[in-house]
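Handoff note, outgoing to incoming analyst
You'll be picking up this chain. Sequence as last confirmed:
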Amino acid sequence: MKKTFILFLSFILILTIPLTVLGIASDYTWSTLDLTKEVSSEIVSDADNSNPLNLDCGACILMEQKTGQILYSYNAHESLLPASVTKLMSIYLIMEAISQGKINLDTQIPCSENASSMGGSQIWLDTRETLSVNDMLKAICIVSANDCVTAMAECIGGTEENFVNMMNQKAKELGMNDTTFKNCHGIDEDGHVMSAYDIAILSRELLNNFPEVTQYTTIYMDSLRDRKIKFSKYKQTC
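Most recent structure output, in case you need it:
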């Protein structure tokens, strides 16, 4: 998986902080660069093919959460393999289902053979167990658990395939025109792509519509099934 999306995740984490980047106290030094000069409206309105900050990436974007203003972008509409950033949309649909009363945090979610066989990042769900939606969200947001997100997809969509259709429909509704989902977890698959711009749109919608998601995305360490789970660096294996 390209390091492009590691940078995307860094920007997403920035967006989880309730602030306007350029509105921080002026005596705080973010870097040695004069960002007030470098990140100008002229640069932002550029053809998106220059990289004046010389960031080591193939594509990136920095978008202010509340206004949607693009502060910096580079190749932002290039469709690339998103890996586990895919789970942002799965999380969005889980939070939406909770808000609509279709499920709640205490709803017990079973594990199918399909979910247990996902591989990659996982908590080794067993087909004989169930977990609450609350615990599933912990596993998805902290461990990037492919088995848990698949189990949730099957619960909400009936099948993983139907859930993926829901993901693509929601992407269209949000104006994510560079995105096509083939699965709910992000394991590489031909045609499964997102752009930096679309990830920014989705991240903004998730944070603005469901701010309670930060109760999970800001966890560093917690327990699940009486075992500790801990946030670790993003892995290329999804």
